Amino acid sequence: MRQTELFTKTKKEIPADEVSRNAQLLLRGGYIYKEMAGVYAWLPLGIRVINKIKKIVAEEMEAIGSQEIIMTALQNKEIWEKTGRWDDEKVDIWFKTMLKNGSEVGLGWSHEEPIIEMMKSYITSYQDLPKYVHQFQTKFRNEVRAKSGVMRGREFVMKDMYSFCVSEEAHMDFYNKSTQAYLQVYKRLGLGDITYVTSASGGAFTDNFSHEFQTLCEEGEDVIYVHKKDNYAVNEEIFNEKTLLKHSANKDDFEMKKSAEVGNIFTFGTEKCEQMGLSFTDAEGKKQPVFLGSYGVGVTRLVGVLAEIFSDNKGIIWPKSVAPFQIHLLVLGTNDETKKKAEALYQEMIAENIEVLFDDRDGIAPGEKFADADLLGMPVRVVISDRSLEKGGIEIKNRNEQESKVISVDELMKILKHA
Amino acid sequence: MRQTELFTKTKKEIPADEVSRNAQLLLRGGYIYKEMAGVYAWLPLGIRVINKIKKIVAEEMEAIGSQEIIMTALQNKEIWEKTGRWDDEKVDIWFKTMLKNGSEVGLGWSHEEPIIEMMKSYITSYQDLPKYVHQFQTKFRNEVRAKSGVMRGREFVMKDMYSFCVSEEAHMDFYNKSTQAYLQVYKRLGLGDITYVTSASGGAFTDNFSHEFQTLCEEGEDVIYVHKKDNYAVNEEIFNEKTLLKHSANKDDFEMKKSAEVGNIFTFGTEKCEQMGLSFTDAEGKKQPVFLGSYGVGVTRLVGVLAEIFSDNKGIIWPKSVAPFQIHLLVLGTNDETKKKAEALYQEMIAENIEVLFDDRDGIAPGEKFADADLLGMPVRVVISDRSLEKGGIEIKNRNEQESKVISVDELMKILKHA
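^ Those are the sequences you sent over. The predicted structure of the assembly is below.
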């Protein structure tokens, strides 16, 4: 894509009320636009990052047998009343509104209740189980504070998956598979080394069967205790004598770290399906309640976490797997021959299906182009200039390194084709 | 995909309050699930149809230079007050709700106001123009009645595009291009022959520069007058003496037809940008208001229109361009050899990237499998059975034809590979 065609521009100023680092970088780069606190529009570069994350998540969910659906934002009051979760005292982040006929409706903040209701149409026998479905959907949560940029939105995209099983045993099998699938997602996003599965205290029932995925992150809202030698961490809420005893560890073996929750998985058991009347007939013809699991990944939140972690004082440093473009091609200088060579190189990259953003802007100082490239954060910067051509080619530099080197165009294309 | 893996099932019964043909067919086929009137979840087969329509629309919009963004559902009251469109008297389909701090917010039913506000960050000079952006986004409209299935939703997916130009002349150039792009979309969807561009009376300003795309459809909510000989139609609202005079035609030259609005394009002029303060500096350094256009296609509505038009009393007959799968492969009979051959054929199709739904269900009567294939509506049905193998191969039938014929597996694969 040509930068002259991109309607966004990089910015020096950002909204005064924007205190989070991720939103500051994403706003300055033109990845997002702020509608109000916790509510962001996604611009062309931002959509490319979201789509790459979605693709990775979708592949891993489909690999464990899940099917994609899209449920609705508008929520039926009657359905949520069945489990008591319509009550604002129990769930304090509902947005509620009204149909013309006066019926109250809510905006979906999670989808256990409606998916159970829906599954009553499709699950009747043990032969219909197990079933796994997921969606990428916009959730609405009426947060009191939304100061963490895209890491905590009032409107955000989430991948939520739901599992329906005949028994706890069958459930645990899928629960373990989904844990591995989640870890695979974080690995592919470049977060593998700093993401921990932690046991979460999710209320009475889910005591033993809920986990969070916590990524080390200074701007995160959570705290975990990371074991100094062994590769595991403990959630703040259960960092107590009992847990230490279980791990045969001492308090001093752990280091307190700030973290961001990048995923969570819940065992709901049979309670919700019992409340809502979702059951199946087993092989003996007996009615049994369905065993429910729920699995969430905040897709837009992950963009924020990545921007927090992979950035320096100049801008973002996207991991290759989610970068909107792999190459940022800059043309510098006013020599016609240089411009012609840059254009030819751009065309060659397009022909080779290389994802390239081409800074073809005229009348922009080299320093400004470099600063924009650093801010936008594509993994590889390729500069073609009067000077680089004199030296025999183009200048290539990885965003996460200081040193650049000059190589020939042929050599560059050879590297890119095999990347 | 294997039908045994699909969590949905075809149904004989549908919700009692569902009177529209499109929703009845889509519900029975397991394409959609009804959450409440005008609010439908999309299931795996339905998502495939939506994604194909989105791809066609995206390709045509990108071909005329538009860039994809995603704006937000939550809408800022202050922004809509600038043009007076926050007022429920003026716009009577708002859903409104409230943030925790008591601020009122709305749910986006269209996005002219927020996109103009956003563009104030990116448009300052004539050199920044023209700009075209589009999004595929969930819109919310608080309709009093929602009885037309997915053809009129309270929550639905729309492609909306906005154009920002320096002048009326530049605008009309893009407006004409977008008209052609829209016609191209309907052509690719199989609706080309029955879709008319009609001049619409869109209020005082837009009298001459707004058009609707109307598809002949018995279940449509609109009426158009189609010229009996020439290939054009006139919108009911302007079917009057003045229009007839313009066309040198008589009333009797036209036939009244029911139709569904499948798209609309509006010229907004400079008024909205003036109200909201979006201007650019021209080449002489003078401030000028930006010229706005707005272009909508109801993506989920189109699924409904297609289901209305391309169906018979047995079910849907998808055009190839939007069918969830091109082939519905049915295995009949209990012979092990038949099952083995069916499995091999399915694997071969998958290896060739042929989109195939494989009815591999055991213990289902042939009549039921045929009925399901007719209901689901894939363009080509391929049956492999003890009998077909005796006759030397598989039985192939197009959904829109009565006659089937038996051909060899080799011949089938040859046809499919070149389709």
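Chain A touches chain B through 52 residues (CB under 8 Å). The longest helix of chain A spans residues 168-188.

Shout if you want it in another format.
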